[in-house]
């Protein structure tokens, strides 16, 4: 059976090329954020995460980068750089392109995705899923940068604890749910839920851990609800992120 090809309609291709080449940053931005996070595991700081995002005029773009620091950086260098661009409006977020670069210190992987009518299409990247993912299962999935931005951006009251989203990075498919709300005080809210591994993982990986608890703490500011801390349980133990900017 001949493999189905996803072709880009002329108008959408023109828009995509226009975004990528003509405008390195969107003009008339309504919301810009730069964030710095320290990442902790095993009781020590293991790295730093930086996020830069620009949202406005119907579009958004974001960049995220992580690198190990201190003792963790000496023992093993790990870094990643991810970026995405997309549309934003009353319909929510719709990514158009995604690029990811990951260096684990042992291997380097690079992935590029394009999105066609809500379907992420892998256009480059050598890594393959440990177990094949059905195409339809990826429908509606967003890229890691878009999901990260949605979770960690400044929130309005109506946006809090409303994340229920599939995420695809080119090799693995997960479902992130942050819909439980716990008001700590009048100025603090914890959104909690689960990080569900649903595709691209080996049987052994899923047997070790399929579902992880996740939570994000937001603090009320004059501008909105600011993400200050994130907690996630991984196969290697608990990881915590703390806002530093």
Number of helices: 4
Largest β sheet strand count, sense and barrel closure: 13 strands, antiparallel
Arithmetic mean of pLDDT: 87
Radius of gyration: 18 Å
Secondary-structure element string: HEEEHEEEEHEEEHEEE
Strand content: over 45%
Task: Provide the helix percentage.
Answer: 10-25%
Q: Find the count of extended strands (DSSP E, 2+ residues).
A: 13
The coarse silhouette is globular
Helix and strand content put the structural class at mainly beta
Number of domains: 1
Distance between the termini: 53 Å
Outline the low-pLDDT stretches.
1-29
Order the strands across the largest sheet as they lie in space: 7-6-5-4-3-2-1-13-12-11-10-9-8
Walk me through what this model shows.
By secondary structure, the protein is mainly β. It has four helices and 13 strands. It has helices at residues 10-22, 70-75, 144-152, 203-208; strands at residues 31-41, 44-56, 59-68, 79-89, 92-103, 108-116, 119-124, 163-168, 173-185, 188-199, 211-220, 225-234, 237-243. It has a 13-stranded antiparallel beta sheet with strand order 7-6-5-4-3-2-1-13-12-11-10-9-8. Strand 12 and strand 13 (237-243) form a beta hairpin. 26% of the residues are buried. Mean pLDDT is 87; it is low at 1-29.
Core attributes:
single chain, 245 residues, mainly beta, 13-stranded antiparallel β-sheet, 4 helices, 13 strands, 14% helix, 53% strand, disordered N terminus
């Amino acid at each position: 059976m001949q493999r189905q090809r996803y072709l880009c309609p002329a108008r959408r291709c023109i828009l995509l090329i226009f975004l990528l080449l003509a405008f390195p940053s969107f003009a008339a931005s309504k919301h810009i954020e730069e964030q710095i996070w320290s990442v902790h595991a095993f009781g020590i700081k293991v790295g730093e995460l930086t996020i830069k995002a620009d949202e406005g005029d119907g579009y958004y773009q974001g960049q995220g980068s992580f690198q190990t620091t201190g003792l963790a950086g000496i023992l093993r260098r790990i870094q990643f750089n991810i970026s995405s661009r997309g549309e934003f409006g009353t319909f929510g977020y719709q990514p158009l392109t995604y690029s990811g670069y990951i260096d684990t210190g042992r291997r380097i992987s690079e992935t590029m995705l394009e999105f066609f009518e809500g379907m992420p299409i892998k256009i480059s990247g050598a890594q393959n899923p440990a177990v094949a993912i059905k195409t339809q299962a990826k429908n509606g999935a967003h890229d890691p940068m878009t999901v990260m931005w949605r979770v960690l951006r400044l929130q309005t009251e109506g946006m809090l604890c409303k994340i229920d989203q599939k995420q695809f990075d080119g090799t693995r498919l997960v479902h992130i749910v942050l819909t439980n709300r716990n008001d700590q005080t009048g100025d603090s809210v914890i959104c909690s839920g689960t990080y569900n591994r649903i595709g691209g993982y080996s049987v052994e990986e899923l047997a070790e851990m399929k579902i992880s608890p996740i939570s994000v703490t937001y603090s009320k500011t004059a501008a909105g609800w600011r993400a200050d801390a994130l907690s996630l349980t991984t196969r290697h133990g608990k990881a915590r992120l703390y806002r530093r900017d």
